[in-house]
Each structure stands twice: as structure tokens, then as C-alpha cells.
Design a protein that fits this description.
Rossmann fold; Arc Repressor Mutant, subunit A; 2 domains; five-stranded parallel beta sheet; 5 strands
Amino acid sequence: MYKILIADDEMIERMVLRKKLIDNFGDSCEITIAENGREVVDKYEQKGADLLILDIEMPGMNGLDAAKAIRKMGSECSIIFLTAFNEFDYARQAISVHALEYLLKPCDEKELVLSVEEAIRVSKNHDSRRLLELCEASARTQASTADAILKYIERNYSEELSVQVMAEKFAYSEVYFCRLFKQHFGESFISFLTNYRIKKAVELLKTTKMSVKDIGKNVGYEDSNYFTKVFKRVMKVLPSEYRQST
């Protein structure tokens, strides 16, 4: 049976999290509860776990320190962090212990379920050595994640891009990719891509005599009516009106 160890110093948070896991995974998982980081380490030593879901801010030993202590034991279990604080230093430390996910409170149930499903999938489909290699590779590439993602968008913005495509390209789960993207760029991937495409469309409207339809296709919109709609939403005018005004 898949073993999950969850820890939060708030009793209500622990109970809500446990209920979400039971509602979605039923009897397929064995769930153990801890109140702080020290108890996490003790219970892990006693019973082990395939997945740790840890609040970061806990009195005494926090979730990050507990994860580091367990990693020193040679453990390669999956780790998901929960925190109410959207701070880059926490995310950086989460990467250092090869965390699978970093979720912000209040935790969206869909995000939690997707993250746990990813942990179970990883456990089933990869041996321990392969998992460690993947985590280490992920940690190395994240140092230049923003630059790599931006360059990929610049080269491929006219193609069919989606969160799924990007997540697969950079070997992340969709949930984790969305979080990292927003952390680096300050907005969602879809919002960023839309603004980037419209910026390119503006350049073409200014510098070429291409039709609005062809410009739309050139920046990634096969449907000219949809392109016009998106352009007006962003620029407050139709493409043809913008061209006439320049």
C-alpha cells in the first residue's frame, strides 16, 4: 500500500488534508499524521513513507529541515511542500531537497490530487536511481529555467503552444510548470503568451502590408476571427483600426 505521511501544526489543516486524500484515494493509501517536523522524522524512521506532504512553517523543526534530515538518511521518497508564504527562498530550498511540488495554501484540491497522482506515478514507473537522476536534472535546469522558457517561446510562439506542451518540453508536471512560470514572469503562461503574440502582431501591422488574417496565422492564431477578438481585448482596438492609426 502507498504510504503518505502528512504534517501540519494546525489540527484543522491536518484533518482537512487527510479528508481530501481519503475522498480522492480511498483505501489505496495508508495515511500517517504528524504535528511538526521532529515527529515527521520520528515517524518516518519507524514506518517509512512513499510520499511526504509537509507544511513548511512549523514550530521546532520545520518542514524543510525535516525533509533535509530524511534525505540525509538516503531516502528518495517524493516530497510535496505546503505553505502560506509565496517566497522564492522557500521554493529554492524545496528544490534543494528534490521536492516534487510546492503548493500554496489554501491548497486547491485539484492541484493536490494532481500532485499526489504524479508522486504515485513516479513511484510506479521509475526505480529509485532514475527518480534521483530526474530530480537532480530538474534542480540543475531550474537555475536557468526562465531564460530557457523565454527562448523557447521566442522561437515557437507561432506554433501551437499550451501548458501541456511546455510542461512536457521542460519535464515538469503541468501544475509545477504553471507555478514556476508565474514565479519567474509574474503572470500565467497563457497570459504571457497572448501578450507576446499580440506584441509580434503589432510589429507586423506596423512594418508590413500582410493581411490581418495572415498576421494572425503568423503569430499563432489559425482562426482570424479569434485573433481579431484577442487583439481587441489586449489593444482595445481592432487590428485594422490599429494599422490605420499608425
